[in-house]
Amino acid sequence: MKYVKWTLIVLFWLLVAGFLHYTLPQHDVARITDTYEKRENPSDNPWFWSQANTGSAPGGPRDVFFIQTRRANNDIMVYRNEDTGWGWPPYFKFDTSNLQAEAADLRSTAENPTWVAIRHYGWRNEFISIFPNAVSIREVEGPDVRIIPWLNIIILVTLAALYWALRVRWLRFWENRVDPVLGAAGDKLDEGGDRVRGLFGRSK
Hints:
The protein has 204 residues and is α+β, with helices and mostly antiparallel strands. Helices cover 42% and strands 22% of the residues. It has two domains: 25-146, CATH 2.40.50; 148-204. It has helices at residues 2-23, 96-105, 150-203, and strands spanning 26-40, 62-71, 76-81, 115-121, 133-139. The two termini are 40 Å apart. The model has no long low-confidence stretch (mean pLDDT 86).
């Protein structure tokens, strides 16, 4: 039973960590090599696509913007560029077309690179064709620029503080309200057991 308990605990925290890693913003430094538009069918894996834009059929095929990049170590990364609207994650992104125009304007070559910091969320997986969603792009001095994720730090510290506060209050509630009730119930069971044993003892 102990192994089952710890397995469930580990699985729970892995799910929490995966959810946060997918949802919280990340930054990549790269140069933009191309931008394009492609017809996609998000109904194949709808969890990893944003909601349809206004005027588009929900769940049906639609045109999606993409941004191709290459990092300083020559790794390639492709981002989708979709509005999040009022949905989840709460980035409230409505400027997909403007962002695509910015990305197209910042395209560069290996001989004369323009390095940009791409703020995004999500994962890249070639097997199930999912792409991180670019949220913003800004030009930076070079590929070695250091970006401190202040927003992530604030969010994680806040979540840790909330977890600690809730846990402390839950432990106090359990100690003050539940433990006395369980203790009283245990005492009554012991008394009942003593009486039963006494009755059987006298019957002999």
